[in-house]
């Protein structure tokens, strides 16, 4: 039955998030309509025609303005995120610092011009066959759709790394906010809009869409004006967007960070050298953010025998004594509980600690033990258990371990605890095949935002293993190369003009030339 009186039109569809801290409903948030999605993408397409002409200094100023405004309102944003997600305030404060740092990192990158990869090969009439003048640089790909993460509402949120890297590339951004923290999304969007006004960015450079249904996401990805997608979330969600994008008349890339078991292998030598410390540190890594980290060590390979037994016992004690916190939503808590029940119903699998749902949003810190036969027979044991839980698999001979590791899906990380005398070459080689980051005698949680970081991995960890969503190299997702042949200097992009007006480092006739500008920066071109 309609809820409105005859002769009246129905109001907009709304949704409300539920705080995992208090159980209270948040304010009603209007669901973005299909017409509004189209309007946002149309505005982004118009903005792209302007942004793609901006010199590096203006793009850098845009990013710095967002960083400054975000920093000014960080306390308000952190408070909202804490209420909506249940994540601890110190963790969110650190995430706020990271968000600001990412924006400023991309500002510095844009000013350096390294991301343009300007390359010049002068004409060589004496070559056989004769070689024309060729010049190549990277250009923005076009409007980008960004999907917020649930577990990192700031660093992978509205003003997070995907948005920052797309804006740095000169691409307008249309963000689909996560329905678990819509107020946080709104506050972050206000920050971005205020900063864009300060630098006179064109209307449509940024917009936020909100919705609790899949309709907004489907409409956004299938809009012809969108040229790439950045996503952080579940395997199911990322794969659905990837398939939608691939089925378009003009397929577009989807850079999705999805599920990851992040295997961690411990050799007996490491246990004998520092087993107690490994148990304590491993528990701390596993329970970071109540296990709701994309790099949480979810699958542990522990040798059979007394040192392995001692580690499992110590890890169990650490988890039972460890702190607990709410998961991001009741749905996530329910999914974890169901997955743990399925795992523990498998022959050869037992529950060593926890496993119970304590409330709508809280699950006990959990440790599940599986023998080799169960692991080989149970594909579900090789899937991500998102939350405060990990599966321990016991192994015997090195050959058995390698057979186990050969069954693993792609992951963001692969961790090895060993000593130099161990026969590690086959394991390290397999680790590099399975993951985007190999971790040695450390823990996978905590992703440094640096030049050398690769936060990606083979499917299902990501949909594009060649790209990272963290660090300066993340900008490459939203750029494409263009070569210019025998093109007059006056109409070339500034990065490729003969006198190098931007002062960029460039590869000229196969030799690197240092950054050294010779004149004022062009306003466009």
List keywords for this structure.
single chain; 525 residues; alpha/beta; Aldehyde Dehydrogenase, Chain A, domain 1; Aldehyde Dehydrogenase, Chain A, domain 2; 3 domains; seven-stranded mixed β-sheet; five-stranded mixed β-sheet; 14 helices; 19 strands; 36% helix; globular; disordered N terminus; ALDH_KGSADH; Aldehyde dehydrogenase (NADP(+)); Aldehyde_DH_Superfamily; oxidoreductase; Ald_DH_N
Write the layout of secondary structure elements.
Blueprint: E1 14-15, E2 29-30, H1 34-51, H2 56-72, H3 74-85, H4 89-112, E3 119-121, E4 134-140, E5 144-147, H5 161-169, E6 173-176, H6 182-198, E7 206-209, H7 215-222, E8 228-232, H8 235-246, E9 254-257, E10 263-266, H9 268-286, E11 299-303, H10 306-321, H11 330-344, E12 349-353, E13 366-370, H12 372-377, E14 389-395, H13 398-405, E15 411-417, H14 425-434, E16 435-440, E17 479-485, E18 506-508, E19 511-513
Parallel strand pairs: 3-18, 5-6, 5-8, 6-7, 8-9, 10-11, 10-15, 11-14, 13-14, 15-16
Antiparallel strand pairs: 1-2, 3-4, 4-17, 12-13, 18-19
Helix pairs in contact: 1-7, 2-4, 2-5, 2-6, 3-4, 3-6, 4-5, 9-10
What does this structure look like?
With 525 residues, this protein is an alpha/beta fold. The protein folds into three domains: 37-122 and 133-258 and 469-476, Aldehyde Dehydrogenase, Chain A, domain 1 (3-Layer(aba) Sandwich), CATH 3.40.605.10; 263-440, Aldehyde Dehydrogenase, Chain A, domain 2; 485-513, no CATH class. The chain is 36% helix and 17% strand. The strands form four sheets. A seven-stranded mixed β-sheet has the order 12-13-14-11-10-15-16, sandwiched between helices. The protein has a five-stranded mixed β-sheet with strand order 17-4-3-18-19, with no helix packed on it. Strands 7-6-5-8-9 form a five-stranded parallel β-sheet, sandwiched between helices. Helix 2 (56-72) runs antiparallel to helix 5 (161-169) and helix 3 runs antiparallel to helix 6.
